[in-house]
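Quiz preparation item.
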């Protein structure tokens, strides 16, 4: 399977006062999926008749091997995110903020454009500051409602999407007046997620074949993030970031680049 998902997000933040702000992120997603299956008929029974079960090759001749493939794509609005955040405690060297993310199921879950479920994530963010370095720690708990992606997509039966504990630890460092460097470790602890495990299938004649079993277990995904921000003019900020896979938990890309532009007025 080859899956490619690209996302462009428009966002804005409005300060209600000097301590509370509201943000809205509107993603536009382009998803592509290609699947190739190599099928082989294993004749493991006794007295099997090769004329009963077989594939046809491109010339119309019987064969025990055949490759099947299909691909598709979809584009559209993803899941809109609304955030409210406030500064709960503020001193000279450190700040404490609390907030709530609300994910709306506006994306098409059947075409990889959205989750298909409402999500709530309360979080806390702690940051400090020295002369040039700003360390920070973010902690959150993602609660998810039911979605067809966790149920049966053919019957429309919904199942509960796994909840998650999320964390981020990192820092921003000012290299100059218009240039800064950032690095983070980002993690997700996914509770009771459905995964796959290799198993062995034993046929009636004793032959053994590799197979796939399904299990529900808690898994962790850990990524590293490095990037920089440049302030070329006025309040325009240009950022570039790379997300790098640090462990094998979950299905995701090994490297994910991100380019962003933000303007304050």
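Solution:
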């Amino acid at each position: 399977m080859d899956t490619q998902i690209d996302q462009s997000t428009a966002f804005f933040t409005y300060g209600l006062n000097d301590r509370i702000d509201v943000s809205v992120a509107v993603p536009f997603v382009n998803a592509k999926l290609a699947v190739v299956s190599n099928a082989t008929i294993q004749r493991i029974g006794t007295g099997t008749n090769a004329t009963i079960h077989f594939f046809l090759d491109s010339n119309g001749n019987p064969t025990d091997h055949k490759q099947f493939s299909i691909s598709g794509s979809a584009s559209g609005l993803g899941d809109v995110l609304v955030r409210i955040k406030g500064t709960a405690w503020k001193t000279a060297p450190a700040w404490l903020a609390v907030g709530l993310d609300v994910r709306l199921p506006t994306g098409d879950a059947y075409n990889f454009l959205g989750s298909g479920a409402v999500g709530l994530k309360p979080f806390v963010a702690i940051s400090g500051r020295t002369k040039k370095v700003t360390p920070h720690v973010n902690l959150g708990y993602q609660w998810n409602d039911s979605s067809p992606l966790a149920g049966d997509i053919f019957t429309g039966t919904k199942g509960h999407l796994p909840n998650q504990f999320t964390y981020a630890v990192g820092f921003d460092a000012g290299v100059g007046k218009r240039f800064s460097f950032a690095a983070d470790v980002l993690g997700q602890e996914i509770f009771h997620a459905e995964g796959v495990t290799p198993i062995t299938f034993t046929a009636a004649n004793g032959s053994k074949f590799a197979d796939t079993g399904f299990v529900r277990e808690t898994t962790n995904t850990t990524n590293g993030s490095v990037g920089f921000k440049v302030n070329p003019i006025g309040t325009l900020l240009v950022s570039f970031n790379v997300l790098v896979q640090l462990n094998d938990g979950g299905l995701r890309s090994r490297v994910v680049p991100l380019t962003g532009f933000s303007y304050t007025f």
